[in-house]
Write a structure and sequence with these properties.
Elements lengths: L4 H19 L3 E5 L2 E5 L3 E2 L2 E2 L1 H19 L2 H29 L6 E3 L1 H23 L9
Antiparallel strand pairs: 1-2, 1-5, 3-4
Length: about 140
C-alpha cells in the first residue's frame, strides 16, 4: 500500500476530536452543595473501560493510517464510530430520564464532541480508503 499523508492528517484530526470528546465532561450534575462531572474516560477518579476501548480503537485507526494499511483503517474507524454512537445514545437516554429532576443534569461539551468525533472518524476513514491507491502487480 502507498501511504496517504492527506488521509492520515484527516484521520489524525478526527482522532483528536474523539479523544477530546472522551476526556471532556459528558454530562454534569449540579446539586446544591455537590457538583459531579462525568466523561467517558473517567469519573470520580475511576477509569471507565468502555471509554478506553473507544480510545484504543481510535488510536488503532490512526496507527494504521500512518502505516498505510487501508482495510484496518476502515474497520477500526467503523468500530470507533459505532461505539461512540452507542455510548452517545445510551447516555442520552439516561440523561432524558434524569432531566426530569428539574435541570440538575446537563449535557457537557464531551457529549457533542463524541458525536462529532464519531462522524469525523468515520468520514476520515472513508476518505482515506477512497484516496489511498494500492500497488498493482508489484509496481510502484
Amino acid at each position: 500500500m502507498r501511504k496517504n499523508p492527506v488521509g492520515a492528517v484527516l484521520v489524525f484530526i478526527a482522532t483528536i476530536v474523539v479523544f477530546l470528546g472522551l476526556c471532556l465532561p459528558f454530562y454534569e450534575l449540579n446539586y446544591p452543595g455537590a457538583e459531579l462531572t462525568v466523561s467517558l474516560i473517567c469519573t470520580d477518579k475511576k477509569i471507565l473501560i468502555i471509554g478506553l476501548i473507544w480510545a484504543v480503537f481510535a488510536f488503532l485507526t490512526l496507527l494504521f493510517a500512518v502505516i498505510g494499511v487501508k482495510i484496518p483503517v476502515l474497520i477500526f474507524g467503523i468500530l470507533t464510530s459505532a461505539g461512540l454512537f452507542i455510548s452517545y445514545i445510551a447516555n442520552n437516554m439516561m440523561l432524558e430520564e434524569k432531566e426530569a429532576l428539574g435541570g440538575l443534569v446537563k449535557k457537557g461539551i464531551g457529549c457533542n464532541l463524541c458525536l462529532a468525533g464519531a462522524v469525523a472518524i468515520l468520514i476520515a476513514a472513508i476518505i482515506y480508503m477512497a484516496t489511498t491507491k494500492s500497488k498493482k502487480n508489484g509496481t510502484a
